[in-house]
Amino acid sequence: MTDSVGSQRKKIHPHKFTLWVALASIIMMFAGLTSAYIVKGSMPGWINISLPKLFYYSTGAILLSSVTIQLAEKAFKERNRPRYRSLMTVTVVLAIAFIVFQLYGFKELYNSGIKMEGSGAGQFLYIIFGLHILHVLGGIVALIVMFLKSYSGKIRSYNPVPVEVMTTYWHFVDFLWIYLFVFFLLKM
Q: 161-187 and 54-77 are packed helices; what angle lies between their axes, rounded to 10 degrees?
């Protein structure tokens, strides 16, 4: 019986396993897109662009949101519900700020003449960063659900798995943004 209990403890939770499979597929998608960028960048007619300054602000917002969600997970595990609530609130606000900075950054790009048509880095920026924004929006929906649950009066148990899954996903979209941001800074 102790062997079955020991092996049961070593198994990964199904939600965590599903998350890791999804993250692996997202990594493959973005690796393919950034590889295509490198290949296309060596072709004639390629036009490089500069990243808008607002993307630097969005980077700060998403980095801070990773800190706040990590602290929120810690507060949840310590059963400090008021601190968990406030940190989830700050995380949601920073996540929305990230999206707002991104949208205004893309508006700046568009107004400066960088459009989807034509050859160059612009089309890749819109596609790659746009896909990243979709993943962040999915994370924001999950953050808002967790935020609302933190204010519901019904907590049957302090199961940390949903909070851990959300924290892992949020750190992932943060890391992915840093990778993309540095990639485009170095390649432009």
A: 160
CATH fold for the domain made of 14-187: Four Helix Bundle (Hemerythrin (Met), subunit A) (1.20.120)
Question: Rounded to whole angstroms, what are the CA distances from 149 to 14, 19, 80, 143, 155?
Answer: 21, 20, 14, 10, 8
Tens digits of residue pLDDT in 51-63: 889 999 999 999 9
Contact 56, 182 (CB under 8 A): no
Residues 14-26 have a mean pLDDT of 78
Closest CA to 55 of 4, 13, 97: 97
Name the pTM for this structure: 0.82
Query: Phi, psi (5° rounding) for residue 90?
Result: -65, -40
As a whole number of angstroms, the distance between CA 68 and CA 62 comes to 10
Q: Which of 148, 68, 51, 140 is CA-nearest to residue 98?
A: 140
Residue 88: HSE in the Cβ half-sphere, 13 Å Cα cutoff: 26
Torsion, Cα 171 14 71 26, to 10 degrees, reads: 10
Domain ranges of the chain: 14-187
